[in-house]
Design goal:
single chain, about 230 residues, alpha/beta, Ribulose 1,5 Bisphosphate Carboxylase/Oxygenase, Rossmann fold, three-stranded parallel sheet, 9 strands, about 35% helix, rRNA binding, repressor
């Protein structure tokens, strides 16, 4: 039988029997039990009543968190000429075309968000098997295939979060750091839940949001009252 450290045991005891909390109470519980030596990320996991294998039940979107993510997002941009210059001026970490494609094909992926101008998609399309599984493939539906690369870079750097339902109908994302004030984390969480609610696909039947849970990077999870997460 696995043995847990004192910190893990204490955290589990603190969370025991606590379910369907308000967002604020869940955040307070997570913050008080985040004991790692680094600033842990507050993570949200949502179980949705969808089957993403069907096109009319896919849940995908993007949301700008009002208080940012607290994470330094590294952005790569596929662009040429003036658009490449715009991306660099906006703060993109990596900018290129065929040269960037070769870097990615070689397995070196040192970025968290990938943006491309429409004319670059024939090149980027060759990287589908590499970028797709990492949820890094540029997509016009979430604003990462665009001619307005400067705004896209600034949005990615400023706290924009993409979400996509996995095979089991689960959406997962980081919504801030435990060092954030409780009210700022709560605002981010409700903004994220609200965006997922608005992204309800036409093919979704029955209960759409089945469960919402919060946790820190190294801590246990706690369920949140869905209605409280949707409305303040």
């Amino acid at each position: 039988m696995a043995k847990f450290g004192k910190r893990t045991v204490a955290a589990r005891e603190a969370f025991a029997g606590k379910d369907n909390l308000t967002v604020e109470d869940a955040v307070a519980l997570i913050k008080s039990n985040a004991k790692a030596k680094f600033d842990e990320t507050v993570e949200i996991s949502m179980n949705l009543g969808v089957d993403p294998r069907h096109a009319d039940q896919m849940v995908r979107g993007v949301v700008g968190l009002p208080n940012g993510t607290g994470k330094d997002v590294r952005v790569a941009v596929f662009a040429r000429g003036p658009k490449a210059d715009e991306a660099k001026a906006a703060g993109a970490d990596i900018v290129g075309a065929e040269d960037l494609m070769e870097i990615v094909q070689g397995g070196k992926i040192e970025f968290d968000r990938c943006i491309a101008t429409p004319d670059m998609m024939p090149i980027v399309g060759r990287l589908g098997k590499v970028l797709g599984p990492r949820n890094l493939m540029p997509n016009p539906k979430v604003g990462t295939v665009t001619m307005d690369v400067a705004d896209a870079v600034k949005a990615a750097k400023g706290g924009e979060v993409q979400f996509k339902a996995e095979k089991a109908g689960v959406v997962h994302a980081g919504v801030g750091k435990v060092s954030f004030d409780t009210d700022k984390l709560a605002e981010n969480i409700r903004a994220f839940v609200g965006a997922v609610a608005k992204a309800r696909p036409a093919g979704a039947k029955g209960t759409y949001m089945k469960k919402v849970s919060l946790s820190s990077t190294m801590g246990p999870g706690v369920s949140v009252d869905v209605d409280n997460a949707v409305t303040e």
